[in-house]
Sequence to fold (336 residues):
Amino acid sequence: MDTIEAIRSRRSIRSYRSETVPDDILEQILEAGRWAPSANNSQPWTFIVVRDQKVRRDLANIATYGRFLAQAPAVIAVAIDPDASPHAVEDGAAATQNMLLAARALGLGSCWIGAYGSAYEGMAKDILAIPGRKRLLSLISLGYPSESPIETRKGLGEIVFHDKYGQK
Amino acid sequence: MDTIEAIRSRRSIRSYRSETVPDDILEQILEAGRWAPSANNSQPWTFIVVRDQKVRRDLANIATYGRFLAQAPAVIAVAIDPDASPHAVEDGAAATQNMLLAARALGLGSCWIGAYGSAYEGMAKDILAIPGRKRLLSLISLGYPSESPIETRKGLGEIVFHDKYGQK
Fold:
């Protein structure tokens, strides 16, 4: 799929068909995460592929906005090492966004669940056995979509300035 | 350009030819930023398009790793509003990554300069007149590339676990 089309048509998908995500598709998604940019090419990320149903259920049970994690056939957790990069949060977010776009291009639906700094983070870290200083940035649910939600965005006129903030 | 190819072939480009970036190309890049996902669709971002040479020079002069900002024909600054989203940093990073990928797909080179939380951020905020509570997340330099740098990444075997952290 064309890059601009993938960016423009990606939606947060929270409802999935029951088919599993093939290994080769999952690997292409992880590859997309691997090639994200990071500060000084530090690559401060670890990707945990969660297929085990009990682990997905445990993650879903503690997630106010992530009950659908139990139904998603696969989940990727993005952990980051804040000691490895001064911009570990941005780096992990770039890897997450690459994986969402790759998922879209490969026909999968996905949803980004923000964990970093939330009440959810510590509990999810325990479930995933993420060690002390590492942080959980995000969870990405993955599956073949069974919904086509509509999303809207502010127009460019509302969010773009020229040369200085406030200058139209 | 194909999505996976754009993700896989994007490099940090710090050297540019002198041609300007056409307005319609720049608009497609901003569109890509606009369509990024954000927590609760809060869209906590503002994009400042910097073409003015004095502003680019001022930004370059204070940037240890960003001297090339003076030579890039265009720069996009991504400001975020931490009061608008609990995940404003991740949201702004997703928008930044979308714009880097769109630039690659449209034949442009770009480089992400991390500003958030650095010594550079406050000085750059002053130059760009970004108001008090707003934060400067990143600067994106843009131009037609005059270099083809090689980048490497860790293999998936080093960064992927299954079901729990540490489990191969």
Q: What stands out?
A: The longest strand of chain A covers residues 135-143. Residues 3-159 of chain A form a domain with the NADH Oxidase fold (CATH 3.40.109.10). Strands of chain A lie at 45-50, 74-80, 109-114, 135-143, 160-162. Helices of chain A lie at 3-9, 23-34, 53-61, 88-105, 119-128, 156-159.
